[in-house]
Write a structure and sequence with these properties.
Helix content: 40-55%
ANK repeats: 71-103
Shape: elongated
Organism: Populus euphratica (Euphrates poplar)
Pfam family, one: Ank_2
Protein name: Ankyrin-1-like isoform X2
Oligomer: single chain
GO cellular component, one term: plasma membrane
Length: 412
Amino acid sequence: MDPVLFKAAEAGNIGPFENYQTCSLNQLLTPDENTILHVYLKNQSSEPEFTDFVDIILERCPPLLFQANKRGETPLHLAARYGHSNVVKVLIDRAKALPADPESGVTKAKMMLRMTNGERDTALHEAARNSRSHVVEILTKEDPEFSYPANVHGETPLYIAAYIDDYSWGQEREKVIDEILTNCISVDYGGPNGRTALHAAIEVGDHVSETARKLLEKEKTLTKTTDENGWSQLHYAAYYFRSPRVLKVLLEYDASAAYIAETEKKRTALHIAAIQGHVNAMKEIVSGCPACCELVDNRGWNALHYAVASKDKKAFEECMENIPELARLKTKKDDKGNTPFHLIAALAHQQKQWILVLDEGDIYGLNKRKLSVDDIYVGDFGEIQEEILESLEDVGSGPLGRRHKVLRRRND
């Protein structure tokens, strides 16, 4: 593309193109195969007040409407990305004026809306990723029957919108989610690694309880949908705990979600809350589904075993004092016969503050090696103590293999 024509396209100056051969306008290309429409749309920092340049160019060279650059991006992809809603309307109107495909019967407008780039993103993916709610409204109302599938990364438009973590775009993101849920007849909630838009919203955290309610009103089965590691939405809410509100919403829609155990270590959301030291999350889960306290992992550990494994003495004491259902688990044994207090006895050798937590008496019984809590604490059983301490480290990872840690984000 000649530099003079490139600059004219950037500025939306139609003059230099008036005397150019109409049939050759689509051959004016940059090294990335951007057409004059791509160049124009990329250079508009805000929505153009007038659409004359796009109108006139398409009038003279209609093939530019569907012409993609090297990345497979059509003018509609760029107009959606940059939020040029007036241009989006022009492009759709131009496509509507063309005859439908004779074989499929699909209109040219819908064909354009469904076109994907090299990463299989549609224009709706682009609009969702950049929180362009006005564009999302236009696109979804034009083709409400289409269930926009995932791109090469496994991301659907709804997942992308839910996963945006940008405070400045918070309200726009909520509008994008609303438009997709309201206008699309068939919504795809999927994301990468088996996650859903609800997993994503919980991880991000902004206004998550409100978003969760909207998603569950549309699709109640999301509470039972797990990622590739078997983590439910409740697991995520326990791990990324910020306030009880999202847990309340999830349990309100389906309290049985508290029974879902992950694939490998068979941990429930209550186990995850315990290992993270999230006492208020534990309270909420137990309140919503008291019987889930009975569930153990693949080693026979209950939630109180995990509260010890968190090595958060304060959190453990709060569980004992304020959650009676968990306090009653103190005598329950794992597959090796160890109660939570057997674990504490070993931990007290490493972290002396735990000595104060040890109870007196023989109520905890013996483990399968015939050892009491006192034996482990005061006896010469260094190898067994070390074995228990190693077990406290082997509690599994967070979602998708992440290490267990509390992520500090804005509160819900």
